[in-house]
Each structure stands twice: as structure tokens, then as C-alpha cells.
Amino acid sequence: MIRSILVTASVLALAACNSPEPEKAATEIVPSPVAAPDAPAPVVDANALTPEGWGNIRVGMTRAEVEAAVGPDSSPNAVGGPDPTACDLFHPEQAPTGMMVMVENNVVTSVWLNRGATVKTDRGFGIGDDAAAIKTAYGDAATASPHKYSAAPAEYITAWASGGGEGYIQNPAARGISYHVGNDGKVNFVAAGGPSIQYVEGCA
């Protein structure tokens, strides 16, 4: 009898040793959120005309600083404005073809491109480009206004990067770009800088 009890106990103990262990609760692994990569900054041509100027010619410089950077007026006898001491528009000797610098009261207020210029703006537009393409690229950031002397499609397309608003802008801190469009719907002048980009007759 005792032997039977011992055998039974041994069998039970052996069965207990061979029984599978209770399953352990699975540990849930939650992956850490991965931050989306920052969108690459748009690449701007280092040679582009921007609302702040071009290359070594920056809005706010004195005429002497411009001449030290890109040379004196290439045509000193040409008439740049009715009163050069108040306003002058000139082409520095070392500036690109077709580029003019507007100086008012001895300070650069804008940089202009005219026929023959190959420099483009920071949005990739320049002389000869279609007004329609410029409007599409800028969208609501640009406004169009009627041309002072010519019927549509001639017009002015202006985009203020800072300090702009409705109507004629007089804020000296404003910066923008204006495309002057001719009768053929193409750009024939570009002005970048302060409020003087709104001038339609050189210094006026």
C-alpha cells in the first residue's frame, strides 16, 4: 500500500515537471514616432535678383559703396534722372549687361533690369518672360495693375516680400519685385527693392 502511494506521488511529480509553463504575457512594443524630414529649402541662384538687390549691390548701400563694389557709372554723361542728386539711375561698369542701379539721396533704393539683361529673379523670371507664367508662379502673392501708358495686356505685376499692402506703398522698409509687362504680354523691365520699384518713368 505504501509502495503504491509512493509510485503515484512520483508519477504526479514527474507529470508536474513535464507540464508546459504558463504562457507569459506578450509585451507590446510601441515604435517611437519618427519625425518627418524637413522639406528641403528652395535653391536660389546666387546670381539672382532678389528684393534685397543683386550680388554686391544691396538696397540701402550708398553710391560710393556701390562704386567700390562694381565700379563707377559706365556712362557718366548719360542722364539718369532730372535731378541726379535726388535720384539717379545708372549702370556700374562691372554690373551685368542691362542692369541699372537706382540711387535716391545717395542711397540705393532699387535695382533694375532692362532689355539685354540675362539675370533672372529669385523666382527664375526675367526680360522676355510671359506675364501669364509669372502670375501662375506667384499666385496670390502678386498683384497686377494697369500699365500707365499702354492698354492690356501691358501691365505691372508686383510681389512684395515684406512691408507691402494695398495701394501705393511708401514704407521705406518694404521690399519686393515688380515686372513691367509690354504690349506683347512679355516682361520688358524688372525692378527689385523698395517703393521705387513702383516708378514707371525711371526716377518718377
Q: What's the Cα radius of gyration?
A: 36 Å
The gross shape turns out to be: globular
The largest β sheet comes out as:
7 strands, antiparallel
| Class derived from helix and strand content | alpha+beta
* Proportion of residues in β-strands: 15-25%
Number of helices: 3
- Report mean pLDDT, rounded to a whole number: 84
What is the count of β-strands?
9
Q: What is the string of SSEs from the N terminus onward?
A: HEEHEEEHEEEE
Rounded to the nearest angstrom, the distance between the terminal CA atoms is 126 Å
- Poorly predicted sequence stretches spanning 5 or more consecutive residues: 1-17, 22-26
Kindly state the percentage of residues in helix: 10-25%
Strand order of the largest sheet: 3-4-5-9-8-7-6
Total count of domains: 1
Structure description:
The protein contains three helices and nine strands; from the N terminus they run αββαβββαββββ. Strands 3-4-5-9-8-7-6 form a seven-stranded antiparallel sheet, with helices on one face. The protein has a two-stranded antiparallel sheet with strand order 1-2. The protein has helices at 2-18, 63-70, 131-138; strands at 53-54, 57-58, 87-90, 99-104, 107-113, 142-146, 155-162, 175-181, 187-193. The chain has one domain (53-198).
Summarize the structure.
The protein is α+β, with helices and mostly antiparallel strands and 204 residues long. The chain has helices at residues 2-18, 63-70, 131-138, and strands at residues 53-54, 57-58, 87-90, 99-104, 107-113, 142-146, 155-162, 175-181, 187-193.
